[in-house]
Write a structure and sequence with these properties.
Elements lengths: L2 H21 L3 E2 L23 E4 L2 E4 L5 H7 L6 E9 L12 E10 L2 H22 L1 H6 L4 H5 L6 E4 H10 L12 H10 L5 E4 L22 E6 L3 E8 L4 H8 L3 H9 L2 H11 L5 E7 H9 L9 H6 L1
Parallel strand pairs: 1-4, 6-7
Antiparallel strand pairs: 2-3, 4-5, 5-10, 7-8, 8-9, 9-10
Length: 314
């Protein structure tokens, strides 16, 4: 597959997502081409994966996510907001599943966990339709199995973390409750469900980001959802967000991210986040990896073979 075929397919996926969310009343909240930021709000759970630079006495970061900024954006655009950009992760190595820079589409919207799951599966269905129509010739030349894609029907399969552990145990893999499910174990679950897209829900909240809402029916778990796709694996991480400011503060102040921010003098950025989101109604959001979605559509296991940026910049 040529690099230009990758560019075209990735472009159609990204534009399909943008069109879907725009048609459903979301506002494009993209910050423009900001390659560096002085705010640690663009970081994920582990500060050690941030690319950090120093210039003129300032610490600058390559962005990983706009999740917290999008949450703050809901105060101005309550229907929903989205952005599309590049996420940078300081991975130890680039391999079949990980890139140091990749395309990430993110969204935040009004609505609860049930609405979140519907939004994700409808957006994915829309992407499949757009790509198979607009890239028909490219996919045909690449011998993509259209029948495999046509089998994707809504609603997608749903599986809780707790039930997933029971299925893995039957398959001879025993995980302690609270352990993360790795990519090989995800493949086993996908096979169990006929190699169809799967919404893996209600993870232990202790292994998830601090702003995820705790499941009111089981305080051990979060109202979280990972979209697991054949070939691509975990393609979308999402959750309903916590709106109780006291609970949000309590969880944030216990994280490694907060300790790192305090030591670096960045705590005011998180205080601003808490201030601007404390009066928001129920809302949820997530991030969709463009290259992993391309893996699923193309039927390719190695993310390096679908990511145009990998070849362009390496």
């Amino acid at each position: 597959m040529s690099i230009w075929q990758r560019v075209i397919i990735n472009k159609v996926i990204r534009e399909s997502l943008m069109q879907y969310f725009s048609m459903h009343g979301f506002t494009d909240y993209s910050m423009g081409a900001l390659p560096l930021s002085t705010s640690p709000l663009i970081g994920c759970e582990d500060p050690s994966t941030l690319f950090v630079f120093k210039k003129s006495g300032l610490q600058l970061f390559l962005p990983q996510t706009q999740q917290l900024a999008l949450e703050m954006g809901l105060s101005a655009f309550p229907k929903g907001v989205y952005t599309s950009g590049i996420s940078y992760r300081k991975e130890l190595i680039e391999d079949k599943r990980h890139l140091m820079s990749f395309q990430l589409f993110e969204f935040e919207s009004a609505g609860d966990f049930t609405q979140l799951l519907k939004t994700i599966e409808q957006a994915i269905e829309n992407v499949i339709k757009d790509v198979t129509y607009q890239c028909d010739q490219q996919l045909t030349n690449l011998n993509v199995d259209f029948s495999r894609l046509s089998k994707v029907k809504l609603p997608l399969g749903r599986l809780t973390y707790t039930k997933a552990l029971k299925i893995l145990k039957i398959k001879g893999i025993e995980l302690k409750w609270g352990q993360d499910i790795n990519s090989n174990q995800e493949k086993i679950l996908l096979k169990h469900y006929g190699n169809q897209p799967l919404l893996l829900t209600h993870h232990p909240w202790g292994i998830k980001f601090f702003n995820m809402k705790i499941n009111p029916h089981d305080a051990r778990t979060a109202l979280s959802c990972d979209l697991i796709l054949p070939f691509g694996g975990e393609t979308c991480g999402s959750a309903e967000r916590e709106t109780n400011i006291d609970k949000l503060k309590s969880r944030l102040y216990k994280t490694e991210l907060w300790n790192w921010a305090k030591q670096g003098g960045f705590s005011q950025s998180f205080e601003r986040y808490l201030e601007e989101t404390q009066d928001l109604p129920p809302h949820s959001g997530g991030g969709i990896g463009i290259e992993r979605l391309a893996q699923f559509i193309l039927g390719i296991d190695d993310i390096r073979k679908v990511g145009a940026r990998h070849d362009l910049f390496n």
